[in-house]
Amino acid sequence: MKKITSFLFVFACFTAISQTKFPYQNASLPTEQRVKDLLSRMTVEEKAGQLNQLNGGAFTGPAGNDAGQNEKSKAVKDGKVGSLLNVIGVADTKAIQEVAMQSKLKIPLLFGYDVIHGYKTIFPIPLAEACSWNLSGIQKNSSIAAKEASAAGIHWTFAPMCDISNDPRWGRIMEGAGEDPYLAGLVSAARVIGFQGNLNDNEHVMACVKHFAAYGAVEAGKEYNQVDLSRPLLWNKYLPSYKAAIDAGAATVMNAFNVFDGIPASANKFLVTDVLKKKWGFKGFVVSDWASFKEEITHGYAENGKDAALKSLQAGSMMDMESKVSVQYLPELVKEGKITLVQLDEAVGKILTQKFKLGLFDNPYKYCDLENEKNKIFTTENRAIAKQAAEESIVLLKNNNSILPLQKDKKVALIGLYANSKADMFDFWIGQGNSNDAVTVYEGLKNKIANITFCNGYNADNSTNETLINEAIKNANEADVILVNIGISGKMAGEDRALANPSISKGQLELLAALQKTGKPVVALVSSARPLILTEAEPFTDALVQCWILGTEHGNAISSMLLGEYNPSAKTVVTFPYAIGQIPIYYNHFNTGRPTQTDGMGNWYSRYRDVQSEPLFPFGYGLSYTNYTYGDIKLSSSEIKKTEKLICKISVTNSGKIDGEEIVQLYIRDYVASIVRPVLELKAFEKVKLKAGETKEVTFTLSQKDLSFFDGDGNTVIESGKFSVFIGANSKDLKQADFQLR
User: Fold this and answer.
1) Which residues contact residue 363 at a Cβ distance below 8 angstroms, ignoring those fewer than 6 apart?
2) Are 147 and 200 a contacting pair, CB within 8 Å?
3) What is the DSSP letter of 64?
4) What angle do CA 118, 119, 125 make, to 5 degrees?
5) What is the rounded distance in angstroms from the CA atom of residue 32 to the CA atom of residue 719?
6) What are the CA-CA distances from residue 543 to residues 2, 179, 655, 693 (Å)?
7) Cis ω for the linkage preceding 23 (within 30 of 0)
8) Which residues are known catalytic residues?
9) Sheet of 412-415, strand order
10) Counting beta carbons within 10 angstroms of the beta carbon of residue 711, is it exposed (0 to 12), middle (13 to 18) or buried (19 or more)?
11) Whole-number pLDDT of residue 562
12) What are the tens digits of pLDDT across the range 269-287?
């Protein structure tokens, strides 16, 4: 009897102990306390595992049973993996999360995925979306992408890209918001808020600010290339957009591939610790780009994998995406005293904190809801929002004789392979989007125009021949108006898609020339994920439309715009070069010592001898089906103190016959400063809806922040002197008023 009683007592004690939660498993405790408790229970090997992110793949079905996946599953079970990327769908994320729950401490995995401009419902490429200048719309678009991704079990997206870029040769220019730091900062912040919400539900995902820092300044627009720029330029042009995204609450930041000051970004203490953590107070965690820790060896900065792991962690970087050097060498580095437990715990603690904030410790399967996956992805509502976003992204560059909008009773010849090629309408970053779901221009138009013909006009390689041109001419001669879809396939947009010559092909130019000779109006629809050099194509056209790569609703949006169901309002966020030799070209450049022929140096000034210095289309440019007239600027004072605000007012009139929406832009110029300032800087804008004939007064307020700049150490500087305010429809057509800052 005593033996039975003793056994029951021991069993009861064991049961009680097994059911007792450790403090880190107690949801009622503060996150900081839970993280501290968990860290105290982890081995160095388990901590190193939290810094290890692997490319996942499928863990269900036949693909989930191969040797590689079994090895990853074992690593997860052993606590040697903190995150997986490219594990897609509830079935797979739940299957491998169940393995993580078999580990000693049951630390949940983070699932990351590139949701750049949509998960299944694909929105316009980010560069095009930014042309809407619609911050609330951009936030909404990101929230839809997050809702779909989270319904598929994803916790984390590697977006937004906040890199400023002036170079259309760079394939990743499509991922950003253009060349202006102010606008890009607002857009980046909107995307962060849209993706994340407040991260207290299962309909949002963690955002990741990338690529930190200055990756958009890669030399010659070539992917993975060198970056070399001054500290003042870094602070004033390239860092503000990252800072805005971080201030919006971004949970994570991704290292860039490039070097800065001769040191790879992943191991750059100045960028990761001095700027990001100390000066900006970033509290989230930093993840490498794909294998960028290991690439420190190739750069010539790290001797081997162990050295790369050491230098990356010492710089302040944390999670290692696919290099596998952290999980392999950190335990050894700690044992040797080269990395302290304090350093390791700080890095691991940041990652654990985000997992707690997502609620994954309390419910590891929080994002694993089959009903959500079934009902919240690729819905009719989501597609309607994507169509609106696409409409707002289309830039009307030219419209001679108001050839647009088209009348539905006109006979239309639609020409151009891209106009009916679904595959070419999607880019590299399409998540789980299916090009078969995309609506082509032909599909969008043929449902609305009774008399429309279509032919390819050119081949998949953008060449043409006599047969294709003759067919196009035959269709054109039988039509009232010609729509010709030219450009570059979406397949050439995204990472590792640099182009040395982003121009319209010879074959497409030959086609345009032949069509112009028919005497029929020619409307060119340009499909591309970057600003192309349109100088040779433009003379052959009566109207020119920058259609970009618009996602799932591509054709529906373009048809709405062409037929006047939507009045275009988008404005460019990148400068369109006149010639390839101008690249990089951007509006917010410095004046130089000899900007024009009128500056006292006779015939010796900054110019090209063979082409114009001005771009084909400036920053902030875009037409409407109506016209807008700007009055004169009225300032609240011609002189203000540094602590005072300046009120700027201007009247804008819709002088046309169609209701429209105008993006009113305000720029400044600081004429004399301790660090030379650009000839123009965007500081404010407002989207104004105006009925035909209506006039509205638009008011802007400039404060000390708008009139300041950064020195080479990132300190804010504001200096007295002469300033000008410019307000207008784009960065070239502007009204001006001057004031003094005392």
Assistant:
1) none
2) no
3) G
4) 25
5) 43
6) 97, 25, 21, 25
7) no
8) 289
9) 395-399, 543-546, 522-527, 481-487, 412-415, 452-455
10) middle
11) 98
12) 999 999 999 999 999 999 9
